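Re-run with default settings, no changes from the original entry. Doing this only to confirm the output is reproducible before filing.
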Amino acid sequence: MESAAMPRSVVTYPRVPCSLQTLGCNLLLRTSKATKPPRLSCRATGGRVDRRDVLLGLGGAAAGLATTHPGALAAPIQADLQNCQTPDIPATAADPSCCMTYRAGTSIADFQLPPASSPLRVRPAAQLADKEYLAKYEKAVALMKKLPDDDPRSFVQQARVHCAYCNGAYDQVGFPGLEIQVHNCWFFFPWHRLYTYFHERILGKLIGDDSFALPFWNWDAPGGMTLPAIYANKSSPLYDERRSPAHQPPSLLDLDFSDTDPNMPRDQQTDQNLKFMYRQMVSSAKKRELFLGQPYRTGDAPDPGAGSLENVPHGPLHGWVGDPRQPNGEDMGNFYSAGRDPVFFALHSNIDRLWHVWRGLSPSNTDFTDPDWLDASFLFYDEEARLVRARVRDCLDTAALRYTYQDVGLPWLNAKPTKTAGTPVPATGALPAKLDKTVRVAVTRPRVSRSQKQKAEEEEVLVVEGIKIADHSRYVKFDVYVNQCEGGAGTAAAECAGSMALTPHVIRHNNKKAGSVKTVARFGITDLLDEIGADGDKTITVSLVPRCAGDVVTVGGVSIEYVK
């Protein structure tokens, strides 16, 4: 039975053209044709290896990596808590350890879905939470903070979970020295869903309420575009003193935050935020790789490429909340400390909700059916302090996990950006180049004036490749434009393909200088080209505009590809 303090409405989103509640279940029933794993570059061996050969040579370890799909030998990521290494996080960090509590001989249970008869937990919008709900939430977090630090359910350990999987504490099984990273790849959404799920279950257990649900920060709607007031009370266990003092309520957030606050009226900022959301959720996210992120398998180097929502607004939101008075933007301005702020879970609960929404926006918005994604496993502690192995396939159906979201609508669904009047600035630069200034290059398009059928079948994708970030202890952001006009309207304009925004997370690279990242950014531009009238152009001008720490960023090239 639902708690009287919980909102009773569930996510229905009447404007979305298909059922969100059943889609995840359907996805679990789908299978994909098995294919031989491609050859890959392995940083651990320094050569070219076939993943199949590597796994066959792992002996017992390979058993944990084997796929359940007949005819294929997959290579899903797997972690081992027995081998945790302290990454090179900043020397100013109060707690340099990212390792989760682990005792030798601890048994690992496979995750089991809760009984179908369990209460359906309804996650409320934080700005709409009532006093009764808030009292429960504050009590649960207070009890979690009182647990001994070595209790795997404690607040300290909950924070370490994020640090461990985001700062190189664990290596990939079979590849010593090759760390696991759940950001900037296709694991961003499922890993954070599992993380918030177990965190929520622990909180509910501590207060004896199996209907308790985490709130979500509804930053994609005008009513939620401030830091939720429930986190601003200094006497509350939800309060974190390491937040930006300039961004306390009623300060309006900037979903495309570039480390400085824009000087514009609130209604204009709200309008821009909605346009950002349309681009990141709709026009630039038509294919699963563009929304969910790029494939990342055992033996692969981390950071193959983030999806649209992970880049923006996920990255900017971390930086907006983080405290600029701290040496590394702690807490949420740096991944190693992000889990120490209760706002983190509200932020990611909304990220989770929007993954749920995205799947329902179009029949083509399907998740990966690749076994290397579905069978990847991660280790968490549950509400009984048991070590649990959960796979991606376990978390695709939120109804089966027995939670849903309060319905707050989708005000950005029709907030389509418009073209800026003016003449495009010509290309004057060349790549590779450092982004210490704006770089504009001419890019040839292989196909022009495609039919609507062709556009529906294949998305035209702008690929910014060979991105190297020499020092990722700083917030890095640059914007990408197609045929940008002089004095353009900024990232809310139709010419903006999107942004790359990376929250600092210092990672270990075999005792070498920490913080280096190599990655790729991809932007769907089919709608963009139509909107700015460039679909017939054989050559377009791509502008790379640095916003934060461009002096540590180099870009190798820009090209066009097509994604089915």
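The chain has two domains: 20-405, 433-563. The longest strand covers residues 459-469.
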